[in-house]
Amino acid sequence: MEVDLFMPCFVDQLFPDTGWNVHRVLENVGCSVLYNPEQTCCGQAAYNAGHWDIAQDLANKFIDDFSGSRPIVCPSASCAGYVKNYYAGLLKGTIYLNQYNRLRTQVYEFTDFLVNVLQVRDVGARFRAKVTFHDSCAALREYGIKSEPRALLEKVRGLELLEMPDTDTCCGFGGTFSIKHEPISTAMAQQKVENALSTGAEYIVSTEMSCLMHLDSYIRKHHLGIRCMHIADILATSDQGVLFH
Question: What is the pTM of this model?
Answer without folding.
Answer: 0.92
